[in-house]
Design a protein that fits this description.
Layout: H1 14-24, H2 32-45, E1 49-53, H3 56-66, E2 74-78, H4 83-90, E3 95-99, H5 113-116, E4 121-124, H6 136-145, E5 149-153, E6 161-162, E7 165-166, E8 173-177, E9 190-194, H7 200-207, H8 213-217, H9 237-248, H10 250-273, E10 286-287, E11 294-296, H11 300-312, H12 328-333, E12 335-336, H13 343-347, E13 350-352, H14 361-376
Parallel strand pairs: 2-3, 2-4, 3-12, 4-5, 5-8
Antiparallel strand pairs: 1-9, 6-7, 6-10, 8-9, 11-13
Helix pairs in contact: 1-9, 2-9, 3-4, 3-7, 10-14
Length: about 375
Amino acid sequence: MKIPFNKPSLSGKELTYIKEAVRRGHISGNGYFTGQCQKWLEKQTGCHKALLTHSCTAALEMAAILADIKPGDEVIMPSYTFVSTANAFVLRGGVPVFIDIRPDTMNMDETLIEKAITDRTKAIVPVHYAGVACEMDVIMDTAKRYSLLVIEDAAQGIMCTYKGKQLGSIGHLGTLSFHETKNIIAGEGGALLINDPQFIKRAEIIREKGTNRNQYFRGEVDKYSWVDIGSSYLPGDLVAAFLYAQMENAEEIYEDRLKSWQLYRDGLEKFYKKGHFDLPFIPQGCEHNGHMFYIKVNNIEERDKLIGHLKKEDILTVFHYVPLHSSKSGKVHGRFHGEDKYTTKESKRLLRFPMYYGLKKKDLDYITGKVEEFFIGI
């Protein structure tokens, strides 16, 4: 493929730091570079505590345990999201209650949350699609009035803000992803951001297989043992070493992706104004990170034809989530509250373009040119 959908890249000292981790003699969990990554996250986001995990999925699973999800407890979330958002709670016996999205941002419709609340509701899980923030003021107000937890799925939202606040730092808990398709990468990797200090001690225990190992090494207990449920949610320090090098160059990566995002938008503006497709919408007060660029065409048939046209030109584009409520397991483990007015319809229109650090202008011009070529031919 001449232009892949994603291309993992080195941004600086990744390989040097991996060698350093080996030299330090600690490449399992909770090593030197894990600590450095956590300090960076705490400074960047302003959270009380950041815990590096081996994936965003792991961070969500930890959040579900911290939320004390029991069988039958309900968790409100969008259906238009990755399976991990729901699966983390289903593993605890929870019931995902899916609500419709807004067609402008593809985020959960905050005005529908209150009607979905029952006496079994325990948490709200906003998903910040493409690094564009949900309406967190409304979500936090609703959660406060009903004594619910808010767990932000900010997998795509590193260095994005809502009214000046970093995504993942607004709810009681937040989760981030460092998967190779994200802005700052480690191959696999994630983090749990703890914004309510009451969760810190238990989160450390859950992350260390349910033991108080961290407290032991800090000299807070004279021996460590099994004290709670948990699992091995730690990443190895080789992963953290790679990630820390990316964090050191986070601003450069951020600016590079924003530049590519804007070049896409500028290159496609003419055909957007002619009504051929919709472009991403960024609400006032939201700053995104250029994580994703997409268009929304008229229907799924047109989308499939455009995918095929671009593939013939050696450009790999992809659609995104199949709504969870229409999936096999979604029908078994969750339910959709209200009307599916936009979730299915908008998901069938959306097409994602190549986006990665180091994407060249000539390649961006080539892509937008081939998109124009397609719509001229219609």
